[in-house]
Design brief:
Length: 292
């Protein structure tokens, strides 16, 4: 089923996984076990990434096929990056052949050695959305509660969001964030300029100190003072730090749903146990507010 159709009926609960970094039956088996454990949480869809530069695309389509075999809806990430029209056509044909109906269309992060000719046919996400929109896929796009790092202002970024909508995006998923006020500002300003499509908040539990540097490098998300204070106190105790991260993610989600978010997308980093713990702590919220 197309995600836009699900969103018309109910709030969505979804998760994100990525293909194993190493080939092999053992690594694949671990990921399939994770997907099976996520299935027990009754998600509406599971997204699967591949590298911003097009790396591991074969693995990503393979995982999308496995998600279909689990009886779940895959949301396949497709990045323009250095891809050609021919590359994208081949990928779309593969996704179509496995019955995948949903795509998250992204430009992809520019590599450190970026040059002007890096993006050959898809310089922007809008180019990719417009191109894929000629086929019968449901298209989603990314958005950034604190603004994209390459946009001078949030409002310039919102204009790009509107272009994505005009090119065919029917829903949006945000980059991870830890201060819900940025999400509410994004939604309010998007509605003000006429973007009415669902904006699904993306949540990644901050469960270890090593993730902080990675998060800052990936998206520059602000860590609010109350969470920073807890990190300073509990960072020396891994189990306590994990508890802090899971509890804080559960708090974010309950607050977001209370204020009208159309669902929640949890970045699992291929660790189902964190998603399971979060959903356990908000079981009543999920049972009551994510029903069709």
């Amino acid at each position: 089923m197309k995600i836009s159709e699900i969103l018309n009926k109910k709030r969505t609960l979804s998760f994100e996984v990525f293909p194993p970094k190493r080939d092999g039956a053992e690594e694949l088996g671990k990921l399939l076990e994770t997907i099976g454990e996520l299935k027990a949480l009754s998600p509406d869809f599971i997204s699967v990434t591949y590298g911003a530069s097009g790396t591991n695309v074969r693995g990503a389509t393979e995982i999308a096929a496995h998600i279909k075999k689990f009886g779940l809806e895959p949301l396949a990430h497709v990045t323009g990056g250095p891809s050609s029209f021919k590359d994208i056509d081949a990928l779309l044909d593969k996704l179509d052949s496995i019955g995948a109906e949903n795509i998250l269309a992204l430009r992809g992060d520019r590599p450190a050695e970026y040059t002007a000719d890096y993006c050959r046919d898809f310089a922007h996400a809008t180019d990719l959305i417009d191109y894929i929109g000629r086929r019968d896929f449901c298209l989603g796009a990314a958005c950034y509660p604190e603004g994209h790092s390459e946009s001078q202002t949030l409002y310039a970024d919102l204009e790009n969001l509107k272009k994505k909508r005009d090119c065919g995006a029917s829903f949006f998923i945000t980059q991870m964030f830890y201060d819900n006020s940025y999400y509410y500002r994004l939604v309010n300003e998007a509605r003000r300029i006429g973007i009415t499509e669902p904006i699904i908040p993306g949540i990644m539990p901050l469960t270890s100190m090593k993730n902080i540097g990675r998060i800052k490098a990936m998206c520059g998300s602000t860590i609010p003072i109350e969470l920073r204070n807890m990190i300073e106190v509990y960072s020396a105790c891994p189990e306590a730090m994990r508890e802090v991260g899971i509890n804080y993610a559960a708090y974010q989600i309950t607050d977001l749903i209370a204020k009208g978010a159309p669902g929640v997308h949890i970045y699992t980093m291929n660790r189902s146990e964190n998603a399971v713990e979060i959903c356990k702590r908000i079981k009543s919220v999920i049972n009551e507010y994510f029903k069709s």
